[in-house]
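Incident log, support desk, overnight shift.

02:14 A customer reports that sequence design results differ from what the structure should imply. Their input is reproduced verbatim below. On-call engineer (initials T.W.) acknowledged and began investigating.
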């Protein structure tokens, strides 16, 4: 590499460094503003102190495995940002020609639901979300974070949280779901308006098949067990009153 090319390379590298420092600085200040207005513990208590909040040890294991498989398969093993998950999600969505898998970690999704209105618009909010995610993972265990995520999600048909969804759709507790029920509920928060069981049952079954296949791929069940779960009649047994 001659001196001219080296100078150009170093100049571009300097520009990149300035952009990254500026970006992360803006994200950090956004994180500081958000948590100064509403401390992290206060934001979390807005969910955990609800009467119908379901703690981790009262959530069905099949449901936990289904959510982990389809949303963040390294959740219990990893701390921090998951670039592998982002690349995997982009690849799967490309192959499916549809948005079937998100790239955000569960902790990131909690962060944006707590502070960013459920959506991340732009790189400033993305970096703020990373700082929020890191703060969450420093303060809470993975089990606490999973329960928070399961309780803050929307499952369609007016049901917020896994407790409401299990009771509202199937008349049972969050710890008493069948494998088929667990897998179909795990798939709904990806797009509740499409997958809610009152009018999106067929679409939800397609999503359930994807969830079950990811569970097989991740070693949580066998192909035979997945086929049995897929064959279950998981139509809601309780109809929401108009």
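02:41 Re-run completed on a clean worker. Output:
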């Amino acid at each position: 590499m001659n001196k001219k090319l080296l100078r150009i390379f170093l100049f571009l590298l300097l520009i990149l460094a300035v952009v990254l420092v500026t970006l992360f600085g803006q994200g950090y200040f956004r994180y500081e503003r958000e948590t100064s207005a509403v401390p992290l513990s206060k934001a979390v208590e807005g969910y955990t102190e609800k009467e119908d909040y379901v703690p981790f040890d009262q959530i069905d294991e099949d449901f936990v495995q289904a959510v982990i498989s389809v949303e963040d398969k390294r959740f219990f093993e990893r701390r921090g940002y998951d670039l592998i998950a982002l690349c995997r999600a982009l690849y799967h969505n490309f192959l499916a020609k549809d948005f079937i898998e998100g790239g955000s970690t569960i902790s990131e999704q909690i962060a944006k639901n707590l502070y960013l209105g459920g959506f991340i618009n732009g790189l400033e909010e993305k970096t703020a979300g990373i700082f929020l995610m890191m703060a969450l993972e420093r303060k809470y265990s993975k089990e606490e974070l999973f329960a928070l995520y399961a309780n803050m999600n929307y499952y369609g048909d007016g049901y917020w949280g896994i407790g409401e969804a299990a009771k509202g759709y199937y008349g049972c507790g969050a710890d008493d779901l069948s494998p088929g029920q667990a897998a179909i509920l795990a798939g709904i928060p990806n797009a509740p308006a499409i997958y809610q069981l009152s009018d999106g049952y067929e679409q939800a079954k397609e999503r359930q098949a994807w969830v079950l296949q990811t569970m097989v791929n991740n070693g949580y069940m066998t192909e035979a067990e997945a086929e049995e779960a897929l064959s279950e009649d998981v139509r809601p047994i309780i109809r929401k009153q108009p």
